[in-house]
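Lab notebook, bench 4. Still working through the backlog of constructs that have no structural model yet. Next entry is a single chain of 367 residues. Request: give me the structure tokens for it.
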Amino acid sequence: MREKATTLYFGPQHPGITGNMMIRLKVEGDTIVKATTEVGYLHRAFEKLQEKRNWLQSFTMMCRFCVPETDPMEELYARAVETIEGREVPERAKYIRVMVLELARLASFMLWYGGQNGSLGLYTMGQWSVGDRNYILDLFEELTGGRVYHMYIWPGGVRRDLPKGFEQKVIKTMDYLEKRLGDYDDLMFDNAIFKKRTQGVGIVDKDTAVEHGVVGAVLRGCGIKSDIRIDEPYEVYSKLDFEVPTSEGADIWARALVRRQEARQSIRIIRQVIDMMPGGAVYNKIPNPQKWKLPKGDAYVRVESVRGEVGLYAVSDGGTMPRRIHLRGAAYVHGITLLEDVLVGENIADVSAIMNSLGTCPPEIER
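Model written out:
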């Protein structure tokens, strides 16, 4: 006998949701038979607002597209403007940009460790990883003056050079985090509960991934090796030696294994960048922002964020403000079309774990 279907509302304030959104679940017993994602709780319209601000003011809004990953957004905007204008970036600034981007990746991984385990009731990991993330935020605060919003990677280079002794502090932090990742393995990947709750759950196979346009760890978690830093190198990534981890499981466990190795690769990249860091200028100064006009043209640039490929399309009509700004992020696909399909047939207890494993960032959807 078929059970009567019940509708459950998951979010928008539920602690298992990764931001301001809701999933309307139709369940029979504790099995999901239909999932519908509902956004509309933010209404920020940042893309349109950027068209009403000059090129530098517009840049400061990029950080708000996805709060845990502000620096890739800055990188996107800076490179788009530089491409349209033809502005060169000093070599030292390119190395600093990569260092900042990888530090941002590590900070995001620390949040993911906490969120992924917290969704399964393993709260100790969140206390560890979010606490360790503060050491990275300390570095950002010294470098940029801000812990979350940095406004540091901007058109022409970076806002200021590294403070005295900063490289040594970064290396010391990397030494600490590299050791801590081993502790994370003991608590998370050697944990029977984590294995049981993630293996065979939230499967995204290769065909589904390609059909939905999946990116990042979700794509690499089903065995497809793809990373913009390798496929379309930017800044100085082509000069660095690092690997792109993959896994074949296609479930939450596989995606966790990928992110586990990616965190180690970020540390590896940061060490190389500091060893290879050249001297010289860090900023090719822009004109007066109130009078700064870009030539007519457009540009589409891509970066590899923690959640995967993120792209930005920018258009200039020759004036002091952007004609069009459009962001293409991973969250729209991962948090709506893919999530709705993957949840069908799963247990309601696994909704949060699946959502965290897909890297959903609702503010990026409502951009």
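Notes after review: The first helix runs from residue 46 to 50. Residues 5-365 form a domain with the Cytochrome-c3 Hydrogenase; chain B fold (CATH 1.10.645.10). Flag for follow-up if needed.
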